[in-house]
Amino acid sequence: xxxxxxxxxxxxxxxxxxxxxxxxxxxxxxxxxxxxxxxxxxxxxxxxxxxxxxxxxxxxxxxxxxxxxxxxxxxxxxxxxxxxxxxxxxxxxxxxxxxxxxxxxxxxxxxxxxxxxxxxxxxxxxxxxxxxxxxxxxxxxxxxxxxxxxxxxxxxxxxxxxxxxxxxxxxxxxxxxxxxxxxxxxxxxxxxxxxxxxxxxxxxxxxxxxxxxxxxxxxxxxxxxxxxxxxxxxxxxxxxxxxxxxxxxxxxxxxxxxxxxxxxxxxxxxxxxxxxxxxxxxxxxxxxxxxxxxxxxxxxxxxxxxxxxxxxxxxxxxxxxxxxxxxxxxxxxxxxxxxxxxxxxxxxxxxxxxxxxxxxxxxxxxxxxxxxxxxxxxxxxxxxxxxxxxxxxxxxxxxxxxxxxxxxxxxxxxxxxxxxxxxxxxxxxxxxxxx
Length: 435
What we know:
With 435 residues, this protein is mostly helical.
């Protein structure tokens, strides 16, 4: 007896997934170019050796800093964001001092970006076939037309469809594997660590990539005679693999706040800390919705491997699980694209790194300097230093580590204090006049 939701588990999932793929692909290619790029000098990291190494590798993950740091500390070239979205075209490896070929980085970027339209093509072809064939009537309902009753020309498309799906899913999984190992590499980075291409994490990544592609394609080619069995095995393999990656990424989320605190102590620039904090929040959202995407598909896949297949014969259960998985897939892909294609709102608003904002008055006799901990300071004629103030009198360095609600409260408290001090001054004047 055939499952009611044969080939991709549901009749109308292909149209939904094709829409999701088009939206995500449009989002990925519409990333705005960077403008007003300014090089952050490595002196702002302090004198710790690990700071210079981290500064080079931060950009290597998802274009966190624009433009990249080069060996010459006077470099100020501004690259377009579309040329180095995930990785830059010429980042120096601080361990060997040479510029490596970044075909690997371009491959990692476009493997994820091209997987979306390929998913869309596969989904549209499958949806066209299934909507053309329609339902097979049975008592108390119906079921999608089994593939064995399809015309020969449509049956000949089954193997290319699933090969395309296996390649696309393997490419997406490969990106998540690289992302996991690179975050582990960053979290364990020390002054004595080797470069990314020489690290055990990169070697482990290469060790896992080839089996992922070979296994997925081998399942499709080796089990093409039994399409339903092949479908269940393919989905079960990818769901188990992605579930393991998602569970391992929980350790990265656990260590991430501690890592950020250590960077702040070592004197990382505030702009970098803010960006990393935002990426950490996106990773939390992505991980949560990855569970929402993987678990329902895993349930249906494991049920398809059983003899009775109780869940796949209940249409509303299939639709509920698939809709949940579709929502999880859409949000986690959107979060991944937001991480891979970050927008620097500071630069888009016209500000530059090291630029000072929020002054009521400017004193030409005061000279501005940037401390090693990324805090704007002023040096007056007497040689004393003081933090830059906003119009409300709050130090700018404090605002860089405060939430908007805390900033509003600080502004209100500052105004209240000024009002109280003014009232006290008036009372003193009145009392002095009476005396």
